[in-house]
Amino acid sequence: MQQQSPSPQDTEQRAALLALLYDMILIRTFEERVSSLAREQGRLPGMQITCIGQEAVAVGVVRALRPVDVVVTNHRSHGHMLARGSDPAALMAEIMGRADGLNRGKSGTLHMADPKNNVLMTSTVVGAGPPLAVGAAFAQRYRRGPGVTCVFFGDGAAAEGSVHEAMNLAAVWKLPVLFVCESNCWAGAQAHQEHCPIGEIAARAGSYGMPGEVVNGNDVERVLETALGLLEHCRSGQGPALLECLTYRMHGHGEHDPQHYVDKAELAAWAGRDPIARLAGALGLADEASGGGEAGGGLRALRQRAAEAVDRAVAFADASPYPSPEEALEHVYVNPIGPGAPGSQEG
Protein backbone atom coordinates (compact mmCIF):
# COMPACT_ATOMS: atom_id res chain seq x y z
CA MET A 1 0.00 0.00 0.00
CA GLN A 2 1.31 3.42 -0.94
CA GLN A 3 2.04 5.64 2.03
CA GLN A 4 -0.16 8.72 2.13
CA SER A 5 1.65 12.05 1.98
CA PRO A 6 1.14 14.37 4.96
CA SER A 7 -1.51 17.01 4.41
CA PRO A 8 -0.54 20.69 4.22
CA GLN A 9 -2.25 21.11 7.59
CA ASP A 10 -0.09 18.37 9.14
CA THR A 11 3.02 19.92 7.60
CA GLU A 12 2.07 23.34 8.90
CA GLN A 13 1.39 22.01 12.40
CA ARG A 14 4.72 20.18 12.47
CA ALA A 15 6.54 23.34 11.38
CA ALA A 16 4.83 25.26 14.18
CA LEU A 17 5.90 22.65 16.74
CA LEU A 18 9.47 22.69 15.41
CA ALA A 19 9.48 26.47 15.85
CA LEU A 20 8.40 26.04 19.49
CA LEU A 21 11.12 23.44 19.98
CA TYR A 22 13.79 25.70 18.50
CA ASP A 23 12.76 28.58 20.75
CA MET A 24 13.12 26.35 23.81
CA ILE A 25 16.48 25.06 22.63
CA LEU A 26 17.72 28.61 21.99
CA ILE A 27 16.71 29.70 25.50
CA ARG A 28 18.37 26.63 27.05
CA THR A 29 21.56 27.11 25.02
CA PHE A 30 21.70 30.82 25.80
CA GLU A 31 21.26 30.31 29.51
CA GLU A 32 23.66 27.40 29.72
CA ARG A 33 26.26 29.75 28.24
CA VAL A 34 25.32 32.43 30.80
CA SER A 35 25.69 29.81 33.52
CA SER A 36 29.13 28.85 32.20
CA LEU A 37 30.28 32.47 31.87
CA ALA A 38 29.09 33.23 35.40
CA ARG A 39 31.68 30.76 36.68
CA GLU A 40 34.55 32.60 34.99
CA GLN A 41 36.23 35.13 37.24
CA GLY A 42 35.24 38.69 36.35
CA ARG A 43 33.34 37.63 33.22
CA LEU A 44 29.80 38.76 34.05
CA PRO A 45 28.82 41.56 36.42
CA GLY A 46 26.09 41.02 38.97
CA MET A 47 23.86 38.11 39.91
CA GLN A 48 22.85 35.72 37.13
CA ILE A 49 19.43 34.08 37.42
CA THR A 50 18.26 31.54 34.85
CA CYS A 51 15.06 29.72 33.91
CA ILE A 52 16.69 26.44 32.89
CA GLY A 53 13.98 23.76 32.95
CA GLN A 54 11.14 26.29 32.61
CA GLU A 55 11.47 27.06 28.90
CA ALA A 56 8.05 25.70 27.92
CA VAL A 57 6.30 28.33 30.03
CA ALA A 58 8.07 31.23 28.36
CA VAL A 59 7.68 29.85 24.85
CA GLY A 60 4.10 28.63 25.23
CA VAL A 61 2.72 31.78 26.82
CA VAL A 62 4.65 34.28 24.71
CA ARG A 63 3.77 32.50 21.46
CA ALA A 64 0.10 32.98 22.41
CA LEU A 65 0.54 36.76 22.59
CA ARG A 66 -0.01 39.27 19.80
CA PRO A 67 2.52 42.00 18.88
CA VAL A 68 0.28 44.62 20.47
CA ASP A 69 0.35 42.84 23.84
CA VAL A 70 2.66 43.99 26.63
CA VAL A 71 5.02 41.74 28.61
CA VAL A 72 6.08 42.48 32.18
CA THR A 73 8.69 40.05 33.42
CA ASN A 74 10.77 39.28 36.50
CA HIS A 75 14.30 38.27 37.48
CA ARG A 76 14.08 35.12 35.29
CA SER A 77 13.57 37.24 32.21
CA HIS A 78 15.94 35.82 29.58
CA GLY A 79 13.50 33.15 28.40
CA HIS A 80 10.55 35.51 28.17
CA MET A 81 12.59 38.04 26.20
CA LEU A 82 14.11 35.57 23.77
CA ALA A 83 10.69 34.00 23.15
CA ARG A 84 9.33 37.49 22.48
CA GLY A 85 11.97 38.11 19.81
CA SER A 86 14.67 40.06 21.63
CA ASP A 87 18.02 39.97 19.81
CA PRO A 88 20.27 37.37 21.54
CA ALA A 89 23.37 39.48 20.80
CA ALA A 90 21.92 42.66 22.33
CA LEU A 91 20.62 40.62 25.26
CA MET A 92 24.03 39.05 25.92
CA ALA A 93 25.75 42.42 25.63
CA GLU A 94 23.32 43.85 28.19
CA ILE A 95 24.02 40.98 30.57
CA MET A 96 27.73 41.81 30.21
CA GLY A 97 27.02 45.51 30.85
CA ARG A 98 28.24 46.62 27.41
CA ALA A 99 27.37 49.77 25.46
CA ASP A 100 25.75 47.84 22.61
CA GLY A 101 23.43 46.03 24.99
CA LEU A 102 19.68 46.11 24.79
CA ASN A 103 19.62 49.02 27.26
CA ARG A 104 23.14 50.34 26.57
CA GLY A 105 24.57 48.45 29.55
CA LYS A 106 22.47 50.36 32.08
CA SER A 107 20.12 47.60 33.21
CA GLY A 108 22.34 44.55 33.36
CA THR A 109 20.59 41.20 33.61
CA LEU A 110 17.87 42.08 36.13
CA HIS A 111 16.11 45.24 34.92
CA MET A 112 15.88 44.91 31.15
CA ALA A 113 13.28 46.33 28.79
CA ASP A 114 12.74 45.86 25.06
CA PRO A 115 10.21 48.47 23.89
CA LYS A 116 10.52 47.33 20.27
CA ASN A 117 9.06 43.96 21.26
CA ASN A 118 6.67 45.40 23.87
CA VAL A 119 8.60 43.98 26.82
CA LEU A 120 7.74 46.98 28.90
CA MET A 121 9.73 46.35 32.04
CA THR A 122 11.53 43.87 34.25
CA SER A 123 11.60 44.09 38.01
CA THR A 124 13.83 41.98 40.21
CA VAL A 125 11.80 43.02 43.26
CA VAL A 126 9.77 39.93 44.19
CA GLY A 127 6.09 40.62 43.59
CA ALA A 128 6.64 44.03 41.96
CA GLY A 129 5.68 42.96 38.44
CA PRO A 130 1.90 42.48 38.90
CA PRO A 131 1.19 46.05 40.14
CA LEU A 132 3.25 47.43 37.24
CA ALA A 133 1.28 45.21 34.88
CA VAL A 134 -1.99 46.56 36.25
CA GLY A 135 -0.78 50.06 35.41
CA ALA A 136 0.09 49.00 31.88
CA ALA A 137 -3.28 47.29 31.44
CA PHE A 138 -5.07 50.38 32.73
CA ALA A 139 -3.29 52.40 30.05
CA GLN A 140 -4.39 49.87 27.41
CA ARG A 141 -7.99 50.09 28.55
CA TYR A 142 -7.87 53.90 28.83
CA ARG A 143 -6.66 54.13 25.23
CA ARG A 144 -9.31 51.62 24.15
CA GLY A 145 -6.66 49.45 22.54
CA PRO A 146 -6.90 45.73 21.78
CA GLY A 147 -3.86 44.69 23.80
CA VAL A 148 -3.48 42.52 26.89
CA THR A 149 -0.72 42.79 29.48
CA CYS A 150 0.94 39.50 30.43
CA VAL A 151 2.93 39.40 33.66
CA PHE A 152 5.16 36.57 34.87
CA PHE A 153 5.89 35.84 38.54
CA GLY A 154 6.85 32.86 40.67
CA ASP A 155 4.93 30.91 43.29
CA GLY A 156 7.06 32.58 45.97
CA ALA A 157 5.99 36.02 44.73
CA ALA A 158 2.35 34.91 44.91
CA ALA A 159 2.60 35.27 48.71
CA GLU A 160 3.42 38.98 48.44
CA GLY A 161 0.71 41.49 49.33
CA SER A 162 1.46 43.41 46.15
CA VAL A 163 0.33 40.45 44.05
CA HIS A 164 -2.96 40.22 45.97
CA GLU A 165 -3.54 43.95 45.53
CA ALA A 166 -2.77 43.77 41.81
CA MET A 167 -5.15 40.87 41.19
CA ASN A 168 -7.87 42.47 43.27
CA LEU A 169 -7.64 45.83 41.48
CA ALA A 170 -7.42 44.22 38.04
CA ALA A 171 -10.57 42.26 38.79
CA VAL A 172 -12.46 45.26 40.21
CA TRP A 173 -11.65 47.33 37.12
CA LYS A 174 -11.89 44.37 34.72
CA LEU A 175 -8.49 45.10 33.25
CA PRO A 176 -6.97 42.95 30.47
CA VAL A 177 -4.22 41.24 32.47
CA LEU A 178 -3.03 37.65 32.18
CA PHE A 179 -1.27 36.76 35.43
CA VAL A 180 1.15 33.87 34.79
CA CYS A 181 2.50 32.09 37.86
CA GLU A 182 5.53 29.95 37.09
CA SER A 183 5.23 27.45 39.94
CA ASN A 184 8.75 26.04 39.90
CA CYS A 185 8.60 24.36 43.34
CA TRP A 186 11.05 26.76 45.00
CA ALA A 187 10.99 30.27 46.44
CA GLY A 188 14.65 30.94 47.00
CA ALA A 189 15.59 27.96 49.20
CA GLN A 190 12.04 27.34 50.45
CA ALA A 191 10.04 24.46 49.02
CA HIS A 192 6.50 25.21 47.84
CA GLN A 193 4.84 23.49 50.79
CA GLU A 194 6.86 25.60 53.22
CA HIS A 195 5.46 28.93 52.03
CA CYS A 196 2.11 28.06 50.48
CA PRO A 197 -0.83 26.69 52.57
CA ILE A 198 -2.68 25.47 49.45
CA GLY A 199 -1.51 23.15 46.73
CA GLU A 200 -2.34 25.33 43.74
CA ILE A 201 -1.95 29.10 43.39
CA ALA A 202 -4.67 29.11 40.72
CA ALA A 203 -7.21 28.12 43.37
CA ARG A 204 -7.05 31.75 44.55
CA ALA A 205 -8.46 33.04 41.26
CA GLY A 206 -12.04 32.48 42.36
CA SER A 207 -11.51 34.87 45.27
CA TYR A 208 -10.90 37.64 42.74
CA GLY A 209 -13.77 36.65 40.45
CA MET A 210 -11.45 35.64 37.62
CA PRO A 211 -10.87 32.31 35.87
CA GLY A 212 -7.83 30.34 36.95
CA GLU A 213 -6.30 27.30 35.30
CA VAL A 214 -3.44 24.96 36.16
CA VAL A 215 -1.39 23.43 33.38
CA ASN A 216 1.64 21.17 33.03
CA GLY A 217 4.28 23.85 32.54
CA ASN A 218 6.65 21.40 30.84
CA ASP A 219 4.15 20.68 28.05
CA VAL A 220 4.59 23.63 25.67
CA GLU A 221 1.60 22.68 23.52
CA ARG A 222 -0.71 22.60 26.52
CA VAL A 223 0.69 25.88 27.84
CA LEU A 224 0.10 27.54 24.46
CA GLU A 225 -3.44 26.21 24.13
CA THR A 226 -4.44 27.24 27.66
CA ALA A 227 -2.84 30.67 27.36
CA LEU A 228 -4.73 31.33 24.12
CA GLY A 229 -8.03 30.57 25.81
CA LEU A 230 -7.36 32.79 28.82
CA LEU A 231 -6.08 35.61 26.64
CA GLU A 232 -9.37 35.58 24.72
CA HIS A 233 -11.16 36.00 28.04
CA CYS A 234 -8.97 39.02 28.83
CA ARG A 235 -9.50 40.55 25.37
CA SER A 236 -13.27 40.18 25.60
CA GLY A 237 -13.58 42.82 28.32
CA GLN A 238 -14.38 40.31 31.07
CA GLY A 239 -11.29 41.17 33.09
CA PRO A 240 -8.12 39.34 34.13
CA ALA A 241 -7.23 35.66 34.33
CA LEU A 242 -4.68 33.56 36.19
CA LEU A 243 -2.60 30.80 34.63
CA GLU A 244 -0.46 28.59 36.86
CA CYS A 245 2.23 26.59 35.08
CA LEU A 246 3.66 23.69 37.09
CA THR A 247 7.35 23.37 36.27
CA TYR A 248 10.72 23.07 38.00
CA ARG A 249 13.75 25.27 38.59
CA MET A 250 16.65 23.00 37.58
CA HIS A 251 19.38 25.37 38.80
CA GLY A 252 19.69 27.22 42.09
CA HIS A 253 17.98 30.52 42.75
CA GLY A 254 20.96 32.12 41.02
CA GLU A 255 24.12 30.73 39.48
CA HIS A 256 25.87 31.39 42.80
CA ASP A 257 23.53 28.88 44.50
CA PRO A 258 24.65 25.21 44.41
CA GLN A 259 21.19 24.21 45.77
CA HIS A 260 22.54 21.67 48.25
CA TYR A 261 19.11 21.80 49.89
CA VAL A 262 17.48 20.03 46.92
CA ASP A 263 17.01 16.27 47.01
CA LYS A 264 19.02 14.80 44.12
CA ALA A 265 16.28 12.25 43.46
CA GLU A 266 13.81 15.11 43.01
CA LEU A 267 16.12 16.80 40.52
CA ALA A 268 16.53 13.56 38.60
CA ALA A 269 12.77 13.01 38.50
CA TRP A 270 12.14 16.46 37.05
CA ALA A 271 15.03 16.06 34.60
CA GLY A 272 13.04 13.12 33.24
CA ARG A 273 10.19 15.54 32.49
CA ASP A 274 12.39 17.95 30.54
CA PRO A 275 10.21 20.13 28.25
CA ILE A 276 12.65 20.00 25.34
CA ALA A 277 13.00 16.21 25.44
CA ARG A 278 9.22 15.93 25.79
CA LEU A 279 8.45 17.84 22.58
CA ALA A 280 11.37 16.33 20.65
CA GLY A 281 10.09 12.88 21.56
CA ALA A 282 6.55 13.75 20.50
CA LEU A 283 7.92 14.89 17.14
CA GLY A 284 9.92 11.69 16.76
CA LEU A 285 13.22 13.52 16.54
CA ALA A 286 16.34 11.50 17.20
CA ASP A 287 18.99 12.59 19.66
CA GLU A 288 22.38 13.95 18.66
CA ALA A 289 23.96 10.53 18.54
CA SER A 290 21.83 9.46 15.59
CA GLY A 291 21.75 12.84 13.97
CA GLY A 292 18.03 13.19 13.30
CA GLY A 293 16.36 12.70 9.97
CA GLU A 294 14.75 15.96 8.92
CA ALA A 295 16.75 18.33 6.77
CA GLY A 296 17.30 21.42 8.87
CA GLY A 297 14.87 20.16 11.50
CA GLY A 298 16.58 17.26 13.24
CA LEU A 299 17.43 17.75 16.88
CA ARG A 300 21.13 18.00 16.13
CA ALA A 301 20.49 20.66 13.48
CA LEU A 302 18.32 22.69 15.85
CA ARG A 303 20.92 22.52 18.61
CA GLN A 304 23.66 23.51 16.19
CA ARG A 305 21.65 26.46 14.94
CA ALA A 306 21.04 27.64 18.50
CA ALA A 307 24.70 27.18 19.45
CA GLU A 308 25.81 29.27 16.49
CA ALA A 309 23.35 32.03 17.44
CA VAL A 310 24.71 32.07 20.99
CA ASP A 311 28.32 32.01 19.77
CA ARG A 312 27.56 35.08 17.67
CA ALA A 313 25.90 36.74 20.66
CA VAL A 314 28.92 36.19 22.90
CA ALA A 315 31.31 37.40 20.19
CA PHE A 316 29.19 40.52 19.68
CA ALA A 317 29.10 41.23 23.41
CA ASP A 318 32.82 40.65 23.85
CA ALA A 319 33.55 43.11 21.03
CA SER A 320 31.27 45.76 22.48
CA PRO A 321 32.93 48.43 24.66
CA TYR A 322 31.83 49.32 28.14
CA PRO A 323 29.75 52.51 28.25
CA SER A 324 31.59 55.69 29.16
CA PRO A 325 30.90 57.26 32.57
CA GLU A 326 29.38 60.26 30.79
CA GLU A 327 26.56 58.07 29.50
CA ALA A 328 25.27 57.39 33.01
CA LEU A 329 22.88 60.33 32.84
CA GLU A 330 21.81 59.84 29.22
CA HIS A 331 18.60 58.06 28.17
CA VAL A 332 17.00 58.63 31.57
CA TYR A 333 13.68 60.30 32.37
CA VAL A 334 15.19 63.05 34.52
CA ASN A 335 18.75 64.37 34.70
CA PRO A 336 19.30 64.97 38.43
CA ILE A 337 22.19 67.35 37.81
CA GLY A 338 20.79 69.22 34.85
CA PRO A 339 20.21 72.97 34.71
CA GLY A 340 18.32 74.14 37.76
CA ALA A 341 18.71 70.85 39.64
CA PRO A 342 19.99 70.87 43.23
CA GLY A 343 23.78 70.90 43.23
CA SER A 344 24.10 72.12 39.66
CA GLN A 345 26.12 75.19 38.74
CA GLU A 346 23.30 76.63 36.62
CA GLY A 347 19.90 78.04 37.44
Q: Give the strand order of the largest sheet, numbering strands 1, 2, ... along the chain.
A: 2-1-3-4-8-7
* Structural class by secondary-structure content: alpha/beta
CA distance, first residue to last residue: 89 Å
Give the averaged pLDDT, no decimals.
90
Radius of gyration: 21 Å
Describe this structure in words.
This protein is an alpha/beta fold. It has a single domain, classed as Rossmann fold. It has 11 helices and 8 strands. A 6-stranded parallel β-sheet has the order 2-1-3-4-8-7, sandwiched between helices. A two-stranded antiparallel ribbon has the order 5-6. Helix 1 crosses helix 2 and helix 5 packs parallel to helix 6. The longest helix is centred in the N-terminal third of the chain and has 31 residues. It starts with 7 loop residues before the first helix and ends in a 28-residue tail after the last helix. The C terminus is likely disordered.
Task: Describe the protein's topology.
Elements: H1 8-38, H2 55-64, E1 70-73, H3 78-84, H4 88-95, E2 119-122, H5 129-142, E3 149-154, H6 161-172, E4 177-183, E5 186-187, E6 190-191, H7 192-195, E7 212-216, H8 220-235, E8 241-246, H9 264-271, H10 275-282, H11 299-319
Parallel strand pairs: 1-2, 1-3, 3-4, 4-8, 7-8
Antiparallel strand pairs: 5-6
Helix pairs in contact: 1-2, 1-3, 1-10, 1-11, 2-3, 2-8, 4-11, 5-6
Concise synopsis of the structure shown:
This protein is of the alpha/beta class.
Keywords:
347 residues, alpha/beta, Rossmann fold, two-stranded antiparallel ribbon, globular, disordered C terminus
